[in-house]
Amino acid sequence: MEKIIFAGGIHGVGKSTLCRDIAERIGLIHLSASELLKWKDLNTNDEKNKKVTDIPDTQDRLLKGLVAAIEQNGKYILDGHFCLFNKNGDVTPVPFDTFAGINPIALLLVTGDPNHIASMLKERDQRFYAADLLAEMQEQELIHAQMIANQLAIRLFVFNIKETNIEQLIHELNESFT
After folding, report:
1. Does the model's pTM come out above 0.85?
2. What is the pLDDT of residue 46?
3. Do you know which SUPFAM superfamilies this protein is assigned to (predicted)?
4. Predicted pLDDT at 1
5. Residue 30: per-residue pLDDT
6. Structural domain tally of the chain?
7. Could you give the CA distance from residue 127 to residue 112 in angstroms, rounded to a whole number?
8. Which distant-in-sequence residues (6+ apart) come within 8 Å of 143 by Cβ?
9. What does the alpha-carbon distance between residue 108 and residue 142 come to, in Å, rounded to a whole number?
């Protein structure tokens, strides 16, 4: 793979908006895991449903979509997840092999207030998610992101959507490409 920063965060935290902003400010191409794996095609009954029936299959689709989308010498930010809701609604880490296949140069975990995220999801998707479930998922994403960063020997940036200085983050992410 080429130079990719992987940005994860729970549904509704604002990672896509943040990734588009980062991409524009430092000249990256923004990619979405949902678009690469064609989530709308997989979830034809309800694309706003966040439960994933076959996590290994979706991750295989993601890697194939990523290979097809990237160009030599490109610089990318890919937004996705470190954990997903499985078909039973349980928080499940994305397999490490997915991240090994992406081969990111850095990881970014976007975090926020679970109560605010729950209200945003209710407004955006017309879905109720309990704030405690979102808090659990966010904590599991942090644990999994730290493990991935350690195993890949790359840097993990944790960005709280309401508290962290975006200028400092952009400066540090930009340095990741040098």
Report:
1. yes
2. 46
3. P-loop containing nucleoside triphosphate hydrolases
4. 54
5. 96
6. 1
7. 18
8. none
9. 10
C-alpha distances in Å from residue 38, one per residue of 25, 79, 148, 162, 173: 27, 14, 24, 30, 27
Tokens of 64: 């194939």
3-state secondary structure of 70: coil
Going from the C-alpha of 62 to that of each of 78, 85, 149, the distances in angstroms are 11, 16, 19
**Structural element, H or E, at residue 110:** strand 106-111
Q: Contact, 113 vs 14, CB < 8 A?
A: no
Per the CB < 8 A criterion, the answer to whether 177 and 105 are in contact is: yes
What pLDDT does residue 157 have? Answer: 96
Q: Which residue has the tokens 């990619």?
A: 31
Containing domain of residue 103, as a range?
Answer: 3-176
Q: Quick one: which of 81, 84, 91, 87 has its CA closest to 132?
A: 91
